[in-house]
Amino acid sequence: MAIHRPDLGFLEALVAIDDHGSLGAAARAVGMAQPNVSRAVREWERKLGLALIERSPRGSTLTAAGTVVVHWAREVLSDVDRLLDAAAALRTDQEAELTIAASMTVAECLLPSWLGEFRRHHPDVKVHLQVHNSRQVFDRLAAGECDLGFVESPAVPDRLHSVTVAADRLVAVVNPAHPWARRRRPLTVAELAATPLVTREPGSGTRSTLDIALAEYPRAEPLLELGSAAAIRTSVLGGVGPAVVSTLAVEDQLARGDLRAIPVDGLELDRTLRAVWRPPRKLAGPAGELVAEIVHARRASVSQGRV
C-alpha cells in the first residue's frame, strides 16, 4: 500500500521529541500544540506500522525503530535546508546581475551615462548589455532573454509594461555641401517622402517613427539601409545622402556645423523613449533601481527646465 509523504512539520516534531525528550517540550520547540503533535505521531505510527515513541510518566523516548526514522528525518530536513540555501544563493546571483536589451539610439547616446551613474551606486551589480533594434528588444523580452529593455518605438506590445525615460526628436540632416543646405524655405513633407534617404533598417524605432509620419505620401526607396545611428551619421558626413535621425545622435555635429538640420514644413517627429519589461507591473531588483534612478533624474531635469 502506498504511503503519502509526511509533511515537514511532522518530521521536525519527531526530531524535536528526540532532542527534548517529551511531547510537550517538542511541541513548544516547533511551535505546535501538544495535542497536534501527539495526534500526528499516532497517525504516522499507524501509517508506517511502527511504534515510534515509548510514552511514560517521565516523558517520551524513541523506540529502536523511531531512532532509525528520526535519523532519516534529520537527513531530509538537512536536505531541505540545503535546497533553501541554494535557492537563496541563486536568487542573490540573479539579483546581482542585470541583462539589458537596448535599441541603438538609447545604447549609443543615453545608456553610457545612465549606467555610469548606476555603477557608482551599485558597484557589485554585473550589467550585460545587448544592442538591437526596438522590435528585437521586444522579442528578447518576450523570450525571457533579458531583464529590461529600452526602446524608441512609437508603440509597445500590450503584454509589456513601460515607463517614459527620455524625450527625443527626429530631424532631417545633410552634409553642408548638399543642395538642401542652401534652400531658403523649408522642405515639404512630400519632398522629403519622395527623396531617397539613408535610413535605419525595418524594425528600428527610428524607421518606424518615420514610416508612420510619411505613411500618406508616395515614398522613394531608401538610398541605403544601415544598422545604427552612428553609421547613418558617418554616411551623411561623407556626403552619401540626406537622412532623418535622432537629434541625440547628431547634436555635436550640428553644433559644430559639420551637419545641417533641414526644417520640414508641417512635420513633427517628436517621440518618447521608454523602458520596457515583462509583468509584474512593479519592476524590482537592479532593473527597478536603474529605471527609478533614470526617471528621478529626468524629473529633476524637467523641473529645472533642462529638458
TrEMBL record:
GO terms for molecular function: DNA-binding transcription factor activity; transcription cis-regulatory region binding. InterPro entries: LysR_HTH_N, LysR_subst-bd, WH-like_DNA-bd_sf, WH_DNA-bd_sf. Residues 6-63 form the HTH lysR-type domain. SUPFAM superfamilies: Periplasmic binding protein-like II, Winged helix' DNA-binding domain. It holds the Pfam family LysR_substrate. Keywords: DNA-binding, Transcription, Transcription regulation. Belongs to the LysR transcriptional regulatory family. This is LysR family transcriptional regulator. It comes from Nocardia aurantiaca.
